[in-house]
Write a structure and sequence with these properties.
The structure is a single chain. The protein is built from 8 helices and no strands. The chain has a domain of 157 residues: MetI-like fold (Orthogonal Bundle). It is 84% helix and 0% strand.
């Protein structure tokens, strides 16, 4: 095991960095998608509610590995051959980021919708009674309160997204699992390599879990004050 760490430790650390970049990129765009869809799910408009519901149900109903294959192989084929526009190619990073953003975004939409709905309705009514437009009231009054309750859940979703990056090894992205497969194929030391990978994931996830608990305690203290 020490030999693997000495020879391949740098490669595995680089792959862990690639994994974190992919997860952060996916989460960033997932937050944008989730915010838009979450807001659509809270407005009093049936069309907006239907759009949010269809998006969440469709994305959550498709296995992530199928979504990854569809984006990486299916979308360029549709664009280049069926639509006949041509010229579209997706790198593993771009396809992986889109896949994570859509998958995580569907869950983020529900997190954000639930967070907004957890804020007392009187907050919105009070802001509207002062003459503030709906979206200004949402941005300045409701969302800041909702975000306080959502932060620990968002960190937990990031942990899930980080683990989901391992699925994207199927499209050739050089994240930790894909790199570990190559190391195993070279060294034939499967137990040692996967043990190291498991420890690397465990360290990162434990740190993120600790961060979520610290933020949750601080937010709870803020509410009590």
């Amino acid at each position: 095991m020490i030999q693997i760490i000495t020879v391949y430790g740098g490669i595995l650390l680089t792959a862990m960095g690639q994994t974190l970049i992919l997860a952060l990129t996916g989460l960033f765009f997932a937050c944008i998608i989730g915010l838009v869809m979450g807001l659509l799910g809270t407005v009093e408009n049936k069309v907006c509610n239907i759009i949010e519901t269809v998006f969440v149900d469709v994305i959550r109903g498709v296995p992530m590995i199928v979504l990854a294959y569809f984006i990486f192989f299916g979308v360029p084929y549709l664009w280049n051959n069926i639509l006949g526009i041509g010229g579209l190619t997706l790198s593993a990073l771009v396809a992986g980021s889109i896949c994570l953003a859509l998958n995580c975004g569907a869950y983020m939409a529900e997190i954000i919708r639930a967070g907004i709905q957890s804020v007392d309705v009187g907050q919105m009514e009070a802001a509207r009674s002062l003459g503030m437009p709906y979206w200004t009231s949402m941005r300045k009054v409701v969302l800041p309160q909702a975000i306080r309750t959502m932060i620990p859940t968002i960190i937990n979703q990031f942990i899930i997204t980080l683990k989901d990056t391992s699925i994207l090894s199927v499209i050739g992205f050089p994240e930790l699992v894909n790199t570990a497969k190559n190391v195993v194929a070279t060294t034939f030391m499967a137990f040692q390599v996967w043990a190291i990978v498991a420890v690397m994931y465990l360290i990162v996830i434990l740190l993120l879990s600790k961060l979520a608990k610290v933020l949750e305690r601080r937010l709870n203290r803020g509410r009590k004050r």
